[in-house]
Please model this.
Amino acid sequence: ENPPIAISSWPYYLSSQSNISLLPGIPFTKMLSVLKQAKIVLSSTPFSRNGSNETVLNGLACGALPVASH
Model:
């Protein structure tokens, strides 16, 4: 079984994939235009287990498939 991938390890594991973009933190005003270009939005939110994350909801609103950790 493979160990879980820590956020800091993502560039190492995914850098060879030409169809995956790992972006740094971006302002909300730019985030919506980025989400409109995405097909899948990954949302790792270990601290918001009892509610929704706006990335998930905004991804849905922009036509992307959200995938969340919890």
